[in-house]
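Dear support,

I submitted the protein below through the web form. The confirmation email said the job was done, but the results page showed an empty box. After a refresh the structure appeared. I'm attaching both so you can tell me whether what I see now is the final result or a partial one.
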Amino acid sequence: MDHPITALSNIKSCIPCCVWLIAFLSAIRFQTLECASYNDWVNKFKAKLHSSIDQWIDLAGATAGQLLRSLRDKAAQWWYFLDNPEVPPDNNQAERSLRLAVTKRKVNGGSRSMERFQHTANLLMVVQT
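What the results page shows now:
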């Protein structure tokens, strides 16, 4: 069995996604509460996360430590959606708006000329508006 610090290094790419998912799902659940309760929950979540990062940051290897320092130093960016509930925590709308163009490109094998690309872009612009 791996040492906990080695295991932490091995899953370094999963940590931000897991932490973000927990925050996202919890935020959705708690956004239905009154403002004061939601703000209390956000502050407790951030404090607990900050405490956990501080506990592990010195024990982690180089790569995992770098990830934890990044989570700590860029916390305002990572958790912006918690402080501003009107901001969505994902970019699904942007991805959905590109989906039709990507699907058409895959089905047709792409555009072979700039003129054809422009025709396709104009068509999709009309269809999506």
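Response: this is the final, complete result; the empty box was a page-load delay. The chain is about 75% helix and 0% strand.
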